[in-house]
Amino acid sequence: MNKYADDAPQSADKCIGACGEGWLCEVSEMWKGQAMSLKIDEELFRGRSEFQDVYVFKNSAYGNVLVLDGVIQATERDEFAYQEMITHLPLCALNEEPKRVLVVGGGDGGVLREVTRHGSIERIEIAEIDGMVVEMSKKFLPSMAVGFDDARVEVNICDGIKYVGDAEEGTYDAIIVDSSDPIGPASVLFEEAFFKKMHRALKPGGVVCTQAECVWLHIDLIEDLAKMCKGIFVGGSMAYGYTTIPTYPSGQIGFMMCSKPAADGSTVDFTKAKRFPRPADESALKPMRYYNPQVHAAAFVLPEFARAALEPHLVPGSE
Amino acid sequence: MNKYADDAPQSADKCIGACGEGWLCEVSEMWKGQAMSLKIDEELFRGRSEFQDVYVFKNSAYGNVLVLDGVIQATERDEFAYQEMITHLPLCALNEEPKRVLVVGGGDGGVLREVTRHGSIERIEIAEIDGMVVEMSKKFLPSMAVGFDDARVEVNICDGIKYVGDAEEGTYDAIIVDSSDPIGPASVLFEEAFFKKMHRALKPGGVVCTQAECVWLHIDLIEDLAKMCKGIFVGGSMAYGYTTIPTYPSGQIGFMMCSKPAADGSTVDFTKAKRFPRPADESALKPMRYYNPQVHAAAFVLPEFARAALEPHLVPGSE
Q: Ranges for the PABS domain (chains A, B) (predicted)?
């Protein structure tokens, strides 16, 4: 299914200076012929973890920027768009208030920060494979790493697929997969075996939300992902939403959401916001800057070419 | 108001090769620290008109690309998003069916193509300052230049501001301003004098829709533009909508829309699609690929940070 699975991940070396000296130019086999370029005002870290190439630099417009295998993962200026949307689209759509949530990937802590905005949640687990990402985020992306400070968060530096597979059946209200692209360590997070494990680990009525690329670049990959999910989330609902975000390829990124039917057979209508994120302590976090209930509904309205391609594979919710 | 008005426009020379050999890297004072890069697979034209630097090249992913003063204006692959949205958001929102429309700028013909989809329209004028843009588009962007072929279209190679100023009061149902950025020849298209002339040239109940940059990059400029428009379109309505488009800076671009009150005092609710574009001859054009009635409504839903900044300056319609 994943045509990039066998491609070799690249290092930042290929991207630094590719756009003239002092620029990071995000060239990749995944978006041939185009590249987002960001000026490197100061190099903050350059290294290699057990899993991937890790690079952090400062840009005058976007603040600190985290780059894994030569691909921009997060910038201080626009990360909120991604973190708020991948988190609140599923958590605000659940029919029941969420109590237990798992984040796979997301080692920068940004998704955790958003999950903690839900006062109903009692336990938040994260399974991130690469400890260096957590370490770098705590050092250079403190506004995201703040997510690790919440007392409900349990950090597991481990293989997320194994973690999900080891969970008891029916454990989670929501699983959020904050993965990098399907080249390198994250390629397995786009495979059927992983989605089957997530389906098993969800409570009835629970939902999965996974990073699912961009309709302008990867409509075929998204279509294939939707077909695969449909075969697993039988009797459930499925939706595709997106957010704009300047530093992701083509300026936006989408999310595939699937729900497992509840005991009474009802499923989640992802397009409807049923609650607003209310932290137990309202003063703990800065207000959200992207998400609101109107943005929630609009996120599922796709350009005509993408609607025509994806709608046949999606399944509306039934409450 | 326009902080870029005094900046010198740049040529493609500054951008070609700035990202390593064989790439166009869209560096600009208007989006410091970031740049969209497109690989140049073949140079098709490089020249200078009386008004600006004109460059056309071929990219394997985006097809032929038109660049003015070093800034990407249109690519064959994603232009439809911009052309459909800048055209149908205003034309489908009008309370009365449009009959007479003026396009200012838009020399590539893409907006004309979309305007011709409205069978009710009897007369379409275009005022484009630069004949070389029209010429290059007919040569290298035929799927856009097809807009010039419609018998209702009258082409005027002239100063759009003068053209609007010379029009009789109350002439147009809609004026669409398809301008480049507010550096160089288009900077005057963001000024008060031009908006006052457009207001005068509109019929009661008529609307203006102008290219109005990106909320991620230029929220201050958009706020200033909104304040200015509010002082001119007294008693009318005002809205800001946007489209995603990979090859514009930060992956999206917005439109400022203003309406003049009708004789009975009613104004246009831009957020509601009141008709679907129906060409007199359905076979003349390929189907639309971005616009549909749901996309119309969703285009006005802004990320929370942009809503908070702009909503106080906008005016809902009253029918």
A: 21-260
- More confident: B86 or B22: B86
Q: Which chain B residue has its CA at the smallest distance from A305's CA? A: B289
**Contacting residues of B for A41, CB less than 8 Å apart:** 33
Query: What is the per-residue burial (b if ≥16 Cβ within 10 Å, else e) of B114-131?
Result: bbbbbeebeebbbbbbbe
- A143: Cα within 13 Å, side-chain hemisphere: 14
**B137-B141-B146 Cα angle (round to 5):** 85
Contacts of B78 in chain A (CB under 8 A): 216
Tell me how far CA of residue A168 lies from CA of A160, A164, A165, A198, A258, in angstroms.
14, 9, 8, 11, 19
What CATH number does the domain located at A79-313 have?
3.40.50.150
Q: What is the pLDDT of residues B237-289, one digit of tens each?
A: 999 999 999 999 999 999 999 999 999 999 999 999 999 999 888 777 899 99
Q: Give the Cα separation of A6 and A279 in Å (integer).
A: 42
| Assembly ipTM | 0.95
At residue B304, does pLDDT exceed 80? yes
Confidence band, pLDDT 50/70/90 cuts, at residue B227: very high
- Pick from B19, B31, B251: CB nearest A244: B251
Look up the CATH superfamily of B12-75.
Spermidine synthase, tetramerisation domain (2.30.140.10)
Q: What is the pLDDT of residues B108-123, one digit of tens each?
A: 999 999 999 999 999 9
Asked if A252's CB is within 8 angstroms of B250's CB, the reply is no
Task: Tell me how far apart the alpha carbons of residues B13 and B21 are, in angstroms, rounded to a whole number.
Answer: 12
As to burial, measured by CB atoms within 10 angstroms (0-12 exposed, 13-18 middle, 19+ buried), residue A31 is: buried
Residues of chain A where predicted confidence (pLDDT) is lower than 50: 1
DSSP A225: H
Query: What is the predicted pLDDT for the residue at A209?
Result: 98
Closest among A130, A111, A129 to A121, alpha carbons compared: A111
d(CA B144, CA B146): 5
The verdict on whether B108 is a catalytic residue reads: no
Phi first, then psi, for residue B4 (nearest 5°) are: -100, -5
A307 neighbourhood in chain B, CB within 8 Å: 292, 294
